[in-house]
Structure formats: C-alpha cells, structure tokens
Amino acid sequence: MSPWHGLEFFASTQQKFHVTGVIEVTKGTRAKFEMSKETIANPVFSDVNVNKDTGDKQLRKYGVAPIFNYGFIPQTWEDNRNLNGDGDPIDLCDIGQHKDTAKPILAVCDYLVLGCLGLIDQKEIDYKVLAIEINEALADNIKTMDDFIKKYPGKIEEIKNWFRDIKTYDGKAPNTYMEGVDFFDADETWAIIHECHLQYRTLFSGDFVNR
Fold it and tell me: What does DSSP say about strands 124-133 and 91-94: parallel, antiparallel, or unpaired?
C-alpha cells in the first residue's frame, strides 16, 4: 500500500487538528530517507547525492541529525506549478519530547497539529507542520502551541535554527522564513493542510488508487 495515496490525511479520531503522519527520518539519525513519488507504491528510499571528491553517488546524510521525527502527511501536495510549492507532500515534524520518542521509518501515527513554519527553501515555499502524537499531547495536557512552548521552552527555536542552517553543511546558503511570521498557529496551519489536500486531489483527480 502506498503511504502517500493509501492512507487518509485525517487521523483515525476524525477530529479537527488531528492528522495522519508517516515517518521518513528517525529522530537523532543522520541518514536522509525520502518517499519516492515516482516509484510504484511510493516506498521510502535513502536519498543520494554526489561525492564532490570522487564524483560517485553516495547515500545522503544530514550534516546534523534532526531533533524530531521527520515525515509527511498523506494525500497532500504542495503545488509547484502554480503556487510556488516544493512539489512534495507537506512535511510533518513530530516534535514530541518524551523519552524514547524516536520512531522507525514508515511508522504511521495520529498527530495533534500545533502550528507550522513557513520555510523558504531555494525560493520555494516548504511548510513544516509541527505536531505531537495525540497520546503524548493528552499525557502532557498540551492542546496548543502555547502549551508546548510553556512546557518545553526554547524547543521551537531549536527546530527553526535546524531548518535554517541544515543546508549550510552542504555548502549552500541558509534557508529563510516567510517575512514577519514566527510560526503559523493551528487554525492557519489547518487551512494550509486542507489547501494541500485539495491540491493533491486536483493533481490526482479521480485517481485515488494505490500507485
């Protein structure tokens, strides 16, 4: 089953601000894995780049391991044809802070959306949805981004800095953020996710088979 096409973007709870998330990169690991849009059933593969010294292809690694589980929301797409998106499903960052929160590749979980970052990556809009697993949110009594910030001060800034600086380890310029936006709140993020779902439905109009 395709993790992109075969899963609903709504969480099993069917509640507002609850979405399904699929993990591609495990928290604390440097290997960069990514869902393949062009391959049948959309498996998650190791990304590759070119070794500058040898010219050979090699498995790609982050310069610094992410401090969150990193994945995407199924049945979403950021339109790179008309809306300056990056042409991928919208990204989800599992920012849970409980012990042993690292999740394996292709883990599928229900998440509470807290907000998102409006990252600009090589002139493309690349939203980063910030969310925590629903059970962890209940255990920590976290309902909003403000609740998370009060309980874990400084964590959102750490995540913002990670995304800002991660390309510099490859010799590229730092990423930037949408001007004047610290982060989008849950209502704004919910609207962005729904728009990306509509873009997905337009892209695959009438074709919701597992590909």
Answer: parallel
The rounded distance, in Å, linking the Cα atoms of 179 and 120 is 10
CATH number at residue 42: 3.90.80.10
**140: exposed, middle or buried (Cβ count in 10 Å: 0-12, 13-18, 19+):** middle
User: Which residues are within 8 A (CB) of 207 and not within 5 positions of it... i.e. 6 or more apart?
Assistant: none
Does 209 map to a domain?
no
pLDDT digits (tens, 9 = 90+) for 75-100: 999 987 766 778 899 999 999 999 88
Q: pLDDT tens digits for 169-207?
A: 988 999 999 988 889 999 999 999 999 999 999 988 754
DSSP-assigned beta bridge partners for residue 88: none
